[in-house]
Amino acid sequence: MLLSLMIFIPLLGMIAVLLLPRESEELIKRVTLLFTLIPLALAVALFISYDRSTAGTQYVVNVPWIQAFNIQYHIGIDGLSVTLLLLTALLGPICVIASWRNIEKGIKAYMALFLLLETGMLGFFVALDLFLFYVFFELTLLPMYFLIGIWGGPRREYAAIKFFLYTLFGSVLMLVAMIAVYLNSGAPGARTFDIPTLITLASTEGHALHNLNFQIWVFLGFFVGFAVKVPIFPFHTWLPDAHVEAPTAISVILAGILLKMGTYGLVRVNMAMFPQGLDFFCNGMGFWGNSLALLGFINIVYGSFCALAQTDFKKLVAYSSIGHMGFVILGLSARNDSGITGAILQMFNHGVISAMLFLLVGVLYDRAHHREINGFGGLGTKMPVYTGITTLAFMASLGLPGLSGFVGEALSLLGAYDKFKLLTILSTIGIVVGAAYFLWTLQRVFLGTLNPKYEDLPEINGREILTLVPLGILTIVLGVWPNFAIDMFRESVTSLIGVLQVN
Amino acid sequence: MQPLSNIESLLYFSPEILLVIFAAAVVLLDLVVKDGESSAVAHLSLAGCICVFAAVLITHFSFGDEGPISLFLGMVRLDVFSSFFKVLLLLATAATILFSLRSDELDARLKGEYYALLLAITLGMFLMASSTNLLMIFISLETVSLTSYILAGFLTHSPRSSEAAFKYITYGAVASGTMLFGLSLLFGMTGSGDLGQISVRLTEFLASGDITPLAVLIAITFILAGVGYKIASVPFHMWSPDVYEGAPIPITAFLSVASKSAGFALFIRFFYAGFGNAELMQAVDWTLMLAIVSALTMTVGNLAALPQQNVKRLLAYSSIAHGGYLLMGGVLLTSEGIGAILFYLVVYLFMNLGAFYVVVLIANEEGTEMIAGYRGLASRAPLVAWAMAIFLFSLTGIPPFAGFFGKWLLFAAVLEQGYYWLALVGLLNSVVSLYYYARIVKAMFLEDAGEETTQVSFSTGTFALLSVFVIPTILIGFLNIFYTFSNISVSVMPMQ
């Protein structure tokens, strides 16, 4: 009940916003904020009351939906979902506050779409029925298309349709795989979309879902769907465009949540449901056995080098996202405790850190109206607070020990080193390059002599600080006390590894 | 159950009889009312639709519910399947009448004939959905075709409309001829016009080796030409973009929905009842041919839609593509597949008619059917723009709209039979289709109207009618009843 409430409160908020008159903009913003704060409060309540000592799903609701196909409205949370749920609920109000002054036209439609997006994201992380899971997955597409397309930058139309087409392409392959799983799950009438049931069936010797060949194909189908979202090379090209054109708050959601939907899907479906298929791609013979780790490696190194080459601040952050998501893939492909724990932690951390980075880019863009890194210089003297927060975010992102980014990446690498020594060693290049581009950017933007054009650039204001502070605190807390988050999903990871060991 | 005699059948035939009465009454009323007051005629036709609707329900629930009843010595059948299509077709007719009332395109003086013809074509479609005899099938098909030719050319002052009618009749004549030849082959082989008899005898003769499978395949192919023409499948689709573009918008909407539905009703009844038994399907393997036609239809439709600038023409190609998706469900003649077709037809009715209604509205307001005319619609008429976006995304097949659930059922039915390549072609086509549907959405939402930012205001009636299409497009997929409804109408299908 609590979960259902949490998912659908933003949807109620959308209806409320739609009923408000278009002129009362201030009221619309407040209502939206209220309807994103309620899920946050509920998420915090869940975070506190969640039973950390068990791997089972909690707060389960399971009612029939489309009976003819045995589709259920089945939701529940385990350690992984509750972590990402908290992240989503946290970024919701932050993004509303970040949009407070920046959205000039059509605030009503913007807020309504944002609330719809939030429902899609929250629902995705709690869905335990494959069909429901897919519906929520796709539900995020439409609002995102409009949010980028209407309120984005100069090339918004191109970016929006590119994002839409890429993601839809991925998800139709996922749809085929999903239907294939359903059709093979049993005799007509006994088929199911229920994820926990499917996980059990897939690890039952002799069941059609257990078949290695079958698992490899459906693994690929789902993988492409999620890979577009993560994004994994070579499906990543929509991301820099979408990020650069999207308004600040939407970039935050994109990097903070939507990319996590991809990796969450990989864990929830690809790993848990197709352990044999996963085994083929992580532990099999020859090239295929290294393929997933290789993709992680490519993401890390390729993303980092691309970031190094950027002169657009936002594009730099976008490419750094690709690099950081590579650690998640690498960690997952290790299939051991530290690898998976690191990957999940990295998901959460990256959500927090990249949200900060995009917010910070937004702050600068709102003042200077451009994002050319070389066009700044010496801002440190003009905007000391802003510089301080940016430095914190940069350091967290480049993996400075003591801040949250370090823990996730270190654990992922540690886990991966067990299985893929060479690839892991090579992947550390990404960290070095990461340090290079962040420090170099820091130098170009904040140090040196002040560009006279920015003589009277105003300092970051209270509203903007308000959006950054909770995230900043999280990066520090998780840096020194990572168990704060790891405790949430430790049992779930253990049980996942148990599933992976079946064969 | 024995077929009823002609006199006994009349009672069960009341919906069709009522249609004839109302069509005649419309013509008579048109003689009485003054020029320019044609809305009375439209309202009479609408009243006719409502009466017929009631008659369909009454005949169905008081007589037809016990099981299929064969009427007129086995010419026509009354079963859940035919009642399903009658309701569907009536909805389309009623919507078309309402569109026509609100459309500025049509010449007010000619409206009497126009509405009478609409009712007549509905009668033909009713028969298409319920005929079980080759002769009756052909007559019903011709009734619909001949009436459509006139309706397509109804804009007498527009050369495009005349061109449309001419193209329609040329292609139509060829297709009918081909189909008739196929029917005659079938009759020659079996000596019967009754679908049930044909099915039995074909199985028997094929088993005894009296006829070769090739002969049956040839007959099927010829007959498919006629059916394919009605549902605008490749390679018999060429007429449809020109006809759809030239015809008045309400007629385009009607043809793309009702004509297609009736075509599928005929297709399903003919092939499922006539050829749907396992032995026959094993002897004559024509599923691959149908699968290829289906794949080609959706691919050609979608690719041709990509560069279109005229929304009506774009929707015409999209409607061809949808014919391809629908055909997927018919490839293997499984009850799941047929159920998926029926479900999709319901969904398609609402989303496609809705989209065409917006085209009518914009054509009235802006005087254009081009995509450029939709620029900035979101700021000028937000509700209409959002409704259009919902229809278009539903047509693409994006959740949570009904189009997604419809497509999902179709794909599941195809995958169930192991036709993975066909499902993949279909799904990739959905991705392609997003591109052109999104072009309209882009024009409405992402582009500015330029200088003119005047608000376009529509009447409450417009919004009410629009919501009649929007609400089902959003909700149908979430309602259990629709999934079972489709299955019921299939379960009565096999003859005897």
Describe the structure.
- The complex is a heterodimer of chains A (503) and B (496).
- Chain A is mainly α and 503 residues long.
- Chain A is 75% helix and 3% strand.
- In chain A, strands 1-2 form a two-stranded antiparallel sheet.
- Chain B is an all-alpha fold and 496 residues long.
- Chain B has a domain at 295-496.
- Chain B has a two-stranded antiparallel ribbon.
- In chain B, strand 1 (69-71) and strand 2 (76-78) form a beta hairpin.
- The longest helix of chain B is centred in the middle third of the chain and has 32 residues, at 159-190.
- Chain B is globular.
- The A-B interface holds A 65-69, 106, 109, 134-135, 138-139, 141-142, 145-146, 149-150, 156-157, 160-161, 164-165, 168-169, 172-173, 175-176, 179-180, 182-183 and B 378-379, 382, 393, 398-400, 404, 408, 411-412, 415-416, 420, 423-424, 427-428, 430-431, 434-435, 438, 442, 445-447, 478, 480, 483-484, 487.
Secondary structure blueprint with pairings:
The complex is a heterodimer of chains A (503) and B (496).
Chain A: H1 2-19, H2 25-49, E1 58-66, E2 71-77, H3 79-98, H4 107-126, H5 130-139, H6 141-151, H7 156-183, H8 195-202, H9 212-229, H10 238-245, H11 248-273, H12 275-283, H13 286-309, H14 313-334, H15 337-368, H16 379-382, H17 384-398, H18 404-419, H19 421-446, H20 462-480, H21 483-500
Antiparallel strand pairs in A: 1-2
Helix pairs in contact in A: 1-2, 1-4, 2-3, 2-4, 3-4, 3-11, 3-15, 3-20, 3-21, 4-5, 4-6, 5-7, 6-7, 7-9, 7-10, 9-11, 9-12, 10-14, 11-14, 11-15, 12-13, 13-14, 13-19, 14-15, 14-18, 14-19, 15-17, 15-18, 15-20, 15-21, 17-19, 17-20, 18-19, 18-20
Chain B: H1 6-12, H2 14-32, H3 39-62, E1 69-71, E2 76-78, H4 80-102, H5 111-130, H6 134-152, H7 159-190, H8 195-208, H9 213-230, H10 239-246, H11 249-275, H12 278-283, H13 287-305, H14 311-330, H15 335-366, H16 377-380, H17 382-396, H18 402-416, H19 420-446, H20 460-475, H21 480-491
Helix pairs in contact in B: 2-3, 2-5, 3-4, 3-5, 4-5, 4-11, 4-15, 5-6, 5-11, 6-7, 6-11, 7-8, 7-9, 7-10, 8-11, 9-11, 10-11, 10-14, 11-14, 11-15, 13-14, 13-19, 14-15, 14-18, 14-19, 15-17, 15-18, 15-20, 15-21, 17-19, 17-20, 18-19
